[in-house]
Amino acid sequence: MRHQVKKSKYMQSNLHSFFSDLIMKTKTKHKQIENIAHCDKLTKLIDRQEFLEHIKQRLIISAKNEYQSGLLFIDLDDFKQINNSFGLSFGDELLKQVSECLRSVVCTEKLSFKMSPQTFELNLARLGGDKFAIFIHKLKSSEDTIRIAQNIIFELKKGFLIANKSINISASIGIAIYPKNSSTTPNALLQMADVAMYHAKANGRGLCYVYSSTMSKKMRRHHYLVEEMRLALASNSFTLSYQPIVNVNSLEINYFEALIRWQHPIEGHISPSEFIPIAEDSNLILELGDWILDEACRQMASWYNAGMKETRISVNVSGIQLKHRCLHPWVIAAINKFDLPAKSLMIEITESCFVDASPELILQLEKLRNEGVKIAIDDFGTGFSSLSLLATLPVDVLKIDQLFIAQAIQNNKYNKILRSIVNMASQLDFKIVVEGIEQVEQYELIKLLGVSYIQGYFIDPPLQSHYVEKKLLQRYTELHT
Ligand code: C2E
Ligand code: CA
Ligand code: CA
Fold it and tell me: What residue's CA is closest to ligand 1, atom 43?
């Protein structure tokens, strides 16, 4: 027992001296780093230029010894928001603490990767703003980079305490591997990690991604479409089409869904499934969404004044718009601008937006509903909302995602799910719309299930407004002659 105590004391003192030694070396290294010309004044980390020079030397060694190396590009999520909310000096303090956190990760990794203590701090840089990079000279396997990146994300997520405020942040990390990503220059390696980081941001933040060449293609397309969308907005080149939602039995039009259309001068038709997510990612959806709501209200007011008083137009509103626009005043302003009765407008929000809807959003929806604007849940069945949530939502219409009807004829499981969604929705008194009806068999099945409304190519595709008018006029004349 005595012997054991002695042994443990001996180990403790050994460990103590090991860590003191490490701290001393780290402190000396800090001093050395501070003396480097290209050192970032705020965090005392090396800057981009020094980092690239360091990687250049390391890659020469990697090439000679056939080492695999890795580069991590770290970008804090929503740092701008922190700066805007708490001020620049608060942001600076956060960057300092983040640097310390990254230092300790690099320091720990140094132990497991057997880097030389003289160089390990040169493997960590502040590239500028809230962007950092870590170079790992000798990897056992490329998977190690993912483990380290996940460890960094985990450590940063623990949060920071600044001026008695606890701050939670996340980071997106892109990874490039040498020589797998077949790049010999440090700049190209950094760029690839940057592209992968961008991919991590686009896929939800707080994630890490390893670079692949398809990412570059995707990113070029992304940047191109953002610029082209800006031009299209400025030159008023978007249009809206209107797809009828009809009564299953009488086939009478109940209302129209407004769907955006983009005829690009060179590329031709570009699908909203491609450009809407990019518009959301770049926040261009805010400007675009304002135009969509205005245009839909303008069109509906013109139909209303021409006598189409019973129908309405439904406008898709994305999650990003809900975050940035105060829904009730935003919608009411558009309605008032065109002197449109509230009952002539519907707002479509996807089920996934309802899953984490704030009480404020629910309140805004309730206010709109009280004034007569209808609310629809879009793409129902794909967003994993719970039944209890559904019962409490201020919603009039439930649109069952087209996935279900597309599968229901051949796949018995989908058929059963479709039946139970329809049963549940009618129990809760929702007006049900099944989207994506393309074939007569699907139409017959929907009729059998007792659904009241359908939308799909079997009835009509999305139509330009003058076709809608022509169609309605035709129906009117048929009925009255
Ligand atoms: P969504 O809101 O679910 O719209 C229905 C989509 O299904 C439309 O595609 C429509 O053209 C298509 N569709 C209609 N009938 C059928 C059918 O029988 N079969 C099949 N396979 N498809 C059918 P679209 O216009 O390409 O739009 C795709 C998505 O883009 C929309 O899905 C919506 O999420 C988004 N989107 C379109 N317009 C807008 C808009 O004005 N604002 C916003 N925020 N999103 C929009
Ligand atoms: Ca929709
Ligand atoms: Ca839908």
Answer: 316
* pTM of the entire predicted model: 0.76
C-alpha 214 – ligand 2 centre gap (Å): 30
Q: At what angle do helices 327-337 and 359-370 cross, to 10 degrees?
A: 30
Pick the atom of ligand 1 nearest to 438's CA: 18
Spatial distance between the Cα atoms of 405 and 180, rounded to a whole number of angstroms: 44
* Adjacent-strand bridge partners of 139: 68
Beta-carbon neighbours within 5 Å of ion ligand 2: 316, 348, 378
pLDDT band at 106 (very low <50, low <70, confident <90, very high): confident
Nearest atom of ligand 1 to the alpha carbon of 259: 38
* Domain residue ranges of the chain, discontinuous segments joined by +: 48-211, 223-479
Topology of domain 223-479, per CATH? Answer: TIM Barrel (3.20.20)
Which range, of 54-58, 109-113, 194-198, 245-249, averages the lowest pLDDT?
Answer: 109-113
Fold of 48-211: Alpha-Beta Plaits (3.30.70)
**Which ligand is closest in space to the CA of residue 278?**
1
**CA 351 to ligand 3 center in whole angstroms:** 10
Determine which residue's CA is closest to atom 7 belonging to ligand 1. 436
